Amino acid sequence: MSSYRDLHPEQQNKLVAEPPIAASDDHAQLVAADERFQAALDKAITAGRERVEAVEATVALKRRTKLSG
């Protein structure tokens, strides 16, 4: 992997002249977006667990009715 020293002078100048990836104002927006994403992900995981539990309960009920019938 190349380091900063291995770059040509014109590439070094470009790196120094470019603004950082996320300015401080952008950082707050990125954090807020990440929090929203995490909340949506948690909600989806919870819903998925509830669906799994519902399917397991349905399968168990069908097994009981087949055994008793």
The class by helix and strand makeup works out as mainly alpha
Please trace the helix and strand order, writing H or E for each element.
Answer: HH
Shape: elongated
What would you report as the Rg, rounded to the nearest angstrom?
27 Å
* C-alpha termini separation: 69 Å
Parts with pLDDT < 50 across at least 5 consecutive residues: none
The largest sheet, given as strand count, sense and whether it forms a barrel, is: none
Number of strands: 0
Explain what you see:
By secondary structure, the protein is mainly alpha-helical. It has a domain at 22-68. Helices cover 78% and strands 0% of the residues. The protein contains 2 helices and no strands. The protein is elongated, with a radius of gyration of 27 Å.
Topology:
Blueprint (H helix, E strand, L loop, with lengths): L8 H9 L6 H45 L1
Characteristics:
single chain; 69 residues
Short description:
With 69 residues, the protein is mainly alpha-helical.
